[in-house]
Amino acid sequence: MKSVKEVSVESKIHKRLQDYPICIELINYLFNDAELQEMQDYANNVSIKRLGYNDHGPVHMRQVTANAIKMLNILHESGIKTSLEAEEIGCFEDSMCAIILAGLMHDLGMMIGRQGHEEMSVTLAKPIIERALMHILPDNLHRRTIIKSVAIEAIIGHMSSRKIHSTEAGIILIADGCDMTKGRARIPLALNTTPKVGDIHKYSANAINRIGIHHGEKKPIRIDIEMSGDVGFFQIEEVLLTKIDVSPAKQYVELYAGVEGEEAKCYL
What pLDDT, on a 0 to 100 scale, did the predictor assign at position 204? Predict the structure, then answer.
């Protein structure tokens, strides 16, 4: 059974896709896919209970998808073409389908473990991607091929350890880094009380109160981060900025962060 948070993020995603019927068909197929749900749930079990990491399950993967959809919509509204559009090989809705698939499956590899989980995510996601695309585009091999290719690039590149080239994959990279609010650290903080190496990620995430994604002033996308304490800067500088710096979409992003009640610092 889905959690209240999962259902809430799904509703947000539906609203952001209301102008794209093929994307709505795809997201409905994926949200109702029992195997994908089981895989997301188990990935979270391994991440939190076995490894002591933050949420890498159904809520996180939905939130990354929601972040990516919002960013891609902002680029579209700003007149900026995706890689598929600029190369005249696909349309905007193809790009949107690709980031939906990548967002909802990028961390499936956590079912196996942390090391190399992006490569494992590709292996686990590929059959689901193929049957989902066959469901929505049964008579269009070309579109299935390009969407699958971009989705796989985005999945395998979401840890910034591998060079990626498309705007779509770059958006997933940033969208993943933007899911770092205190809710993501709540369960591991409650379950794990013994200090150990890596705890800074949980405590820094717990200091992030709010992340806003909206139209920027100097660049199309503006990311605003509000924190309860300085420890949150670790999450921004060691996680989010690392991802933005290697993203093909970096040129479209401005980033501000600060402690609540203080002036925000401009990073980009």
Answer: 73
Of 9-18, 35-44, 45-54, 116-125, which gets the smallest average pLDDT? 45-54
* 217 and 255 housed in the same domain: yes
**Which residues constitute the domain of residue 219?**
182-266
Helix ranges (H only) for the chain are 4-16, 21-31, 34-45, 58-77, 83-86, 92-105, 117-136, 141-156, 167-177, 182-191, 199-206, 232-235, 241-245
Region at 26 (left for phi over 0; alpha for psi -120 to 50; beta for the rest): alpha
Distance, CA of 203 to CA of 3 (rounded, Å):
24
Which residues, other chains included, contact 117 with Cβ-Cβ below 8 Å and sequence gap of 6+?
107, 109, 110, 159
The residue out of 177, 197, 221 marking a domain boundary is 177
Q: What is the DSSP letter of 232?
A: H
Q: CA angle at residue 48 from 176 to 181, to 5 degrees?
A: 40
Summarised one tens digit per residue, pLDDT across range 58-104 is 999 999 999 999 999 999 999 999 999 999 999 999 999 999 999 99
- Mean pLDDT, range 121-137, rounded to an integer: 98
Local confidence band at 186 (pLDDT 50, 70, 90 cut-offs): very low
CA distances from 188 to 62, 106, 181, 194 (A): 19, 20, 13, 11
CATH of the domain at 225: 3.30.300
| All residues at 6 or more sequence positions from 133 whose CB lies less than 8 Å from its CB, including other chains | 26, 97, 101, 143, 144, 147, 148
Phi, psi of 211 (to 5 degrees): -130, 125
Please say if the pLDDT value at position 39 is more than 90: yes
